Amino acid sequence: MNESLKRWVYGGVYLFLFLALLGLIYFSFYSTRASCDDLLQNQDETGVDCGGKCAVSCEVKWAEPIVITARDVFIEGVEHITVMVTVYNPNAFVGVMRLPYTLSIYDTSGKRAFVFHRETKIIPGGNTYLLETNVKLKDRDFGRVEVTWPEYVFTERGNLNLPNLLIQDVATKKMREGIVIFGGVKNEEPAPVSEVIIIVQEREGLIIKRATQSVLSQIPSYGRKEFILELPMTAEELKKIDSKNLNLVLQAK
What we know:
The protein is mostly beta strands.
């Protein structure tokens, strides 16, 4: 091999080694490695940083937070009120299995008059109602209601264990102090349901004028349990009430 050819061969080897070293340095220190938090859709991800080899689904990863859309207070006689907070979940495919929350009622002076520690389940793509009924506080003394909850984790719809329940045979009857709503809740599941809340709301269009609730416990598999709800009203309000404006809502706990 002549000297000129040797120089070309050695030069090519040195150039290859130099470029390989540069590549090693670049990929070791400067190149962004594909991961589940690099804000890119790579690897075998089905969305940005979700699905595929990433443990979290895209529905959970990019779910929007739940929000409070309404805080309502309804008068119950002279010295009692009902408070209802509406929590909306904008996500159609995920909910919250268990959401512990604190509901605080303040009077007009800013003092916290009542505090309730509860737990609820947030359904996908809809409203969840947080009710406190028969609270001993005059309407004129009511200041505001606040709800707080800790950081929560979304769960896909299929893992929320939402029971399949039906409201049956609903009837109403006007009484001296209000209207009574009664009927039954049928469990369409092979497993018993430990507890469910049934809420009745009087609506006028999109406006909820009053509401109350009752808790049903231990509905057997494929069984039924009766409920009775009383919505307090004045004699004048009873004359105007239309049973078509009564809306029943079931909430699993």
